[in-house]
Write a structure and sequence with these properties.
The chain has 241 residues and is α/β, with parallel strands linked by helices. It is built from 8 helices and 9 strands.
Length: 241
């Protein structure tokens, strides 16, 4: 595997691994706040950039959902010992489910932040999907950058091949799903559907009525830390995870 930009802080298990969103990187406010909190309590923590993102090598448009899943798996397999708690933001919430599926013995808990599984199915209009198939590339205005948001046909096809919501998700550990009700990118009802699809009985969906997609305000950050601490507390008992 190509060397990826990453930062690993050793500490107590389980290790928290943060999975960024689409075209995001490991320098976001949520991941840095979570890392600082983990370091203060002596909890092991890993953040990293997918191939083609942030400081990692490669071109963004050359990579797919499956590639980025494999990036996460490769780092977990080589850098992390013992159990893992995944925190996934937006697309990272989709990757979180794929990583948990691939490493069921390692992943003991999950926290989703506006998790967006299967967004290749519900996040594009029929016309946009047609353009992706015919032209191989789609550009859309970005709310976070002057540069357009680019989706490739390869990424879209990879997403369609790795959909998670069409069958029960075989995960039995604790899960917390944070979702803003004013999110303009991920319908808040998707969090309820995801909660129902995960097999575990220990799943909680926390709806932030005035929250947007980023959930990066001070109060949102406190909620993220509380959710992560919840999962770590649950996982302190072997019978809970």
């Amino acid at each position: 595997m190509t060397a990826l930009a990453h930062h690993y802080s050793p500490g107590a298990a389980p290790t928290i691994v943060f999975l960024p969103g689409y075209r995001s990187d490991m320098q976001g406010s949520k991941v840095l706040a979570l890392e600082a909190w983990a370091q203060a309590r002596g909890q092991a923590f890993l953040r990293f950039d997918y191939r083609g993102c942030g400081a990692s090598p490669g071109a963004f448009e050359d990579h797919t959902l499956a590639d980025w899943r494999d990036d996460a798996l490769g780092l977990i397999d080589t850098l992390v010992e013992g159990p893992v708690v995944l925190v996934g933001s937006s697309m990272g919430g989709w990757l979180m489910l794929l990583v948990a599926k691939a490493r069921p013995q390692r992943i003991v808990g999950m926290v989703g932040i506006a998790a967006a599984p299967d967004f290749t199915a519900w996040g594009f209009t029929a016309e946009e999907k047609r353009l992706l198939v015919e032209q191989g590339r789609l550009e859309q205005p970005s709310a976070y950058s002057d540069a357009p948001m680019v989706t490739t046909r390869a990424f879209w096809e990879s997403g369609e091949a790795h959909r998670m919501l069409d069958a029960p998700i075989a995960f039995d550990g604790p899960v917390r799903l944070l979702q803003g009700q004013c999110d303009e990118e991920v319908p808040w009802e998707l969090a309820l559907r995801l909660a129902a699809t995960i097999r575990s009985e220990n799943v909680q969906t926390w709806i932030v009525k005035d929250g947007n997609h980023r959930l990066s305000r001070d109060g949102d950050m406190r909620l993220l830390l509380r959710a992560t601490e919840d999962i770590l507390t649950e996982c302190s008992s072997p019978s809970s995870c």
